[in-house]
Write a structure and sequence with these properties.
Chain lengths: 251, 251
């Protein structure tokens, strides 16, 4: 009988291959198979030998591979004795479905390891000169997704509570719904002059940043034609970039 | 005249050297000087050649190096033409003072680069088998520090608002004040049965995890003698660990 292989749930970081962890970079070389979608970004995916790659993201017809397929495939490959990397953009446990994959593996008795990655929610603003917390401006930071799971009964994000924290908000995958939640935050009493930044394709070679306020940012987005993937930073810290960008070097 | 050197504000990740980024690992080799405190942890600090290291953390007398000294020293070294790494535990912009250092550098005209790291607030729970978000349990996650700056006028963290988000809460440096904020969260109406986990020295060789509920966790902490540095995870996701730990492999 073949010994069962280990599955590594690996975060690839925001996209710059230099921002992968030492461990993630090594696992991409040593793994037998790498299951991935498009979120790790082109530079990282290009480094994985073609024969190891299995794309479990968007399919040719525009449909997504069902999560059940990915779960099943991970177990199947491990039972063949393979060393399997499940590569996820950012961190596997920040709005990925790493939690579900991990629970499925455990339920099936497959040994696994978690290899955290840098989430674009922190690394994106950071490389753009925006600290998500700041001693003078923000004692807390909250992350939320702009894509809510529509099948989840109690799906409504509590924007009122998030506004009331007084801390920084970072919205992942929040380009499309920007008008909705900026309105919700203003309705919750957040100052319309609150600085907002959009960071598109954070740390990728074609990274772009656009800034405005809770009131103006939708127009800024349209003008600059900001597209997914991008993170939205709402809070005083978003204004930091202006003060530092002249001396900020990237990559 | 000497050309001005570049300062790299670098996150070291939670402590396991394998969880440093490829870029951080390279910069530790190529930098002329590394300014650090104790937070990157012993395994990472040991890798930096002694002659490059400048400790700007706790001093012999038990006092902390003032932030003003660190700011000044970064500028001074860059003006000597040095390539300088300012190494910070976790990510430089998550409850470090990286934001202040960055603004000081820009104000002094020193070129700098930001190299994000994995925050222990995500990587700590993750390696312990706790996803900070989960499609079924948490649509948002908030990070807050247990050490509030006492000189900050509006220092009070809004625990009521944080409880009302309905998402996961992660408290960094939250061992000492655990009784205070668990009480505050219960007073804010959070279910006393809410799962809570403490992750001590996340990803270090001597990492430990203790779990309980909002009601029992203070007793659990005392029993297990959990000590700083540790992160506290409050929310349904904290119960995930139990379901997976049998098959979870670390490092």
């Amino acid at each position: 009988m073949t010994a069962v292989g280990t599955v590594y749930l690996v975060g690839s970081g925001p996209g710059d291959p230099d921002l992968m962890t030492v461990k993630a970079a090594r696992l991409l070389e040593t793994a037998d198979v790498v299951l991935h979608d498009k979120l790790p970004g082109p530079e990282i995916l290009e480094r994985i030998p073609e024969e190891k790659r299995e794309d479990v993201g968007k399919r040719a017809g525009g449909e997504w591979t069902p999560q059940e397929y990915t779960n099943k495939r991970l177990v199947e490959l491990a039972r063949e004795g393979k060393t399997v990397v499940r590569l996820k953009g950012g961190d596997p446990f920040v709005f990925g479905r790493g939690g579900e994959e991990m629970e499925h593996l455990a339920a099936e008795g497959i040994p696994f390891e978690v290899v955290p990655g840098i989430t674009s929610a922190i690394g994106g603003p950071g490389t753009a000169g925006i600290p998500v917390t700041h001693r003078d401006h923000a004692s807390s930071v909250s992350f939320v997704t702009g894509h809510e799971d529509p099948t989840k009964e109690e799906s409504a994000v509590n924007w009122e509570a998030l506004a009331a924290t007084g801390g920084t908000l970072v919205v992942l995958m929040g380009v499309g719904k920007l008008p909705d939640y900026t309105a919700a935050l203003r309705d919750a009493g957040m100052d319309p002059e609150t600085p907002v930044a959009l960071v598109e394709r954070a740390t990728w070679p074609e990274m772009r940043v656009a800034t405005g306020t809770l009131e103006t940012i939708v127009g800024v987005r349209d003008e600059a034609e900001i597209e997914p993937p991008a993170v939205t930073v709402v809070g005083e810290v978003a204004a930091t970039r202006e003060r530092v960008v002249e001396f900020l070097r990237n990559r």
